[in-house]
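so i finally got all the pieces together for this one. its two components total, 618 residues if u count the protein bits. some of the lines might not be protein, just check the labels. i wanna see the whole assembly predicted at once instead of chain by chain like last time, that was a mess tbh
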Amino acid sequence: MKIERNTLLVLGLVALVFPLLVGNQYLLHIGVMVLLYAILATSLNLIVGYVGEFSLGHTAFLGLGAYTAALLSLRLGWPVWATVPVAGVVSAIFGAAIGAITLRLRGPYFVIITLAFAEVLRLIANNWVDFTNGPMGLSGVAQPALLADASPLMAKRFYFYLALALTAVALYMAYRFVYSNNGRAAVTVRENRFVAQSVGIRPFVYAMRAFVLGAFLAGLAGGFYAHYITFVGANVFGFAFMISMIIMVLIGGKGTLIGPLLGALLVTLLTEYLRELQELRLSLFGLIVMAVVLFLPNGLMGFLNHRREPGERDGADRTAPGTQGGTA
Amino acid sequence: MDMLFQFIANGLVSGSFYALSALGLTLIFGLMRVVNFAHGELYMLGGVMGWLTTTVLGLNFFAGLALTILVMGAFGWLADRFLIERVRDQGEEPSILLTIGLSIFLTNTALLLVGTAPLNVEGPLPNKPVFLGPVVLTELRLFAVAACAALILAAHLVIRYTRLGRAMRATFQDAMAARLAGINTARVYASTFALGTILAASAGMLLGSIYSTHVSAGGLVSLKAFVVVILGGMGSFAGAIVGGLILGVAEALWGGYISTGTVDIIGFLIVILTLIFKPYGLFSTQVERA
């Protein structure tokens, strides 16, 4: 807990000075994308890592947030300060509705029904032309007014700090959630549902809270995405985003707060680095997912924790059963 | 009104393909408790193999189908022995993730090698229309439906009456007892996965002879197979067949009377409604809800 908090603070400080040291727009853009994905991975991690159910439909909330922000900005002319929080709230409302249905199911059923919701939303976004502009998407989402006569570099710096602020909000909320009674109850449910029920934890209630918080954070990220990219199409509901988020959470290590950040950083850099190999990249991602499942089931954080405190983490002990005695 | 019978006939034709592809999925789930998210990609590979053998190599359709079944069966066997076996008995989540990774890898590797162009499978019969009362179908479609029915029947007979089928059912009931009785369960699991792969791949090749196929078809097929399996009940043979036909007819009617652009939505609505009101499907007998 302490190590996690201190690492997060150090990472935050590094991120805070990063744009001042770097005067390169391209690097700043990568920085912004890392932060955007960090929010998304953190929000997915709340469901995968703390509810213990695997959602393939998390892009539903990213997409809802992005469309909400884009529509509010284009149709009603709302400023970015209003659209992004409202995008989060709209996503959270949908999260509560979708969660009320989906969280009654578990295992493969949960995976498929969440995927079905994301697909239904994608089909609606693609076919309801009057409202969402269909396959043409919504372009020209407004930039904040104070960037009207700023230089491109300053604009990138502005977006970087905006993304950093949102990431800080997301991590703060995730941190408070994870180290509250809510988070501990969610972990109990994840580890053993029946024990949790026998001590009076209602799995559905805690899963629901994590789900709604995850939806809210993904909605914030979606709202930011709409303003930063200035274009929203039905691809925000697509599987490509979902794949990236899954890989980030898995590589970093689910059920830790730093893991998804590490994953977001690694995968975004890897994506940029492999840009030359555009088509090969996704094949490699498929191999990476399989390799992580087979060889690194708890992600990089699981590996590091296991190295740092052997025997204290029973989650990582599948590889070294002999050390299990230390926990008892 | 006169179009109604035509829509139903078209729905039953596509429904029989849904049934065949869903059968492989339900078999793998029912016998192995593995939720195979790469199922649509196995179907896609069947279509690609069909294109490779008939159009590129110029083989006859039946030789192509036999070769496809052989190659995909071997592929399924190896996939089980090298990947799925390593996460066996670790619960559902690792196998879900593993097959998602496999599906990402297969789709994108196929895209890289074959490209996005539509792939034609040469059918064994000409596309001549057949008039059955008010309904028009083509010979090829009737042949494909018959082939689907034959494959479903063959799978049923294998599971019901062969030594391997008995071993499969024994392993499904109690893997430990099956091992004690001298059944090599690792081989049974691999055979089951190979059988499921063959069913998916032959559905892909048959459908590729009617409509052309393309390498990114896998995702949607996976989803539809899941729709069918959830509607029919996971692990249920009859459920997969009935579910497939229901989905096919429902889509044809929706496309005919409401709108063609949103046909795919019907499957997801079926999934959402089934999971809310009858979460273990129409034909499921087991109750394992926690």
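Residues 120 and 212 of chain B are 5 Å apart (CA to CA).
The mean pLDDT of chain B is 83.
anyway lmk what u think
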